[in-house]
Design brief:
Layout (H helix, E strand, L loop, with lengths): L4 H11 L18 H13 L4 H13 L7 H13 L33
Helix pairs in contact: 2-3, 2-4
Length: 116
């Protein structure tokens, strides 16, 4: 009989109850590209997750050097990117610049304070 360590590992890891991690969550005001946020919100809704839960999962996988999505999820994300017109990818991440909503900043019109 041949020893198969992976089968034993699978059995043991599936017999141990999942350890829960108690965490403290904070509200944050993160700014993000508009279409990217739309895709993330739509995908979170598709998977019945909150946006925060989705982002936590993505970040934790990234920190471990793992892809957070399986092939079916990647296909859905591709569809959502097309629907929302998101043409950005990982090569774009360090080349994003903020669009100015009103062009160059102008001096504020209004009353001047009298000099003392």
């Amino acid at each position: 009989m041949r020893y198969r360590g992976t089968n034993i590992f699978w059995y043991i890891s599936n017999m141990i109850p999942n350890k829960k991690h108690v965490v403290e969550r904070l509200q944050t005001g993160v700014r993000m590209e508009k279409r990217l946020l739309k895709v993330l919100k739509a995908f979170a809704d598709y998977r019945d997750l909150t946006l925060g839960d989705l982002l936590e999962g993505i970040v934790l996988h990234a920190f471990d050097g793992k892809c957070p999505f399986q092939q079916d999820s990647l296909r859905r994300i591709k569809q959502l990117k097309k629907f929302y017109g998101l043409d950005l990818d990982s090569r774009s991440s360090h080349r994003l610049t903020e669009a100015s909503a009103h062009g160059p900043r102008k001096k504020r019109a209004g009353k001047r304070r009298p000099r003392k």
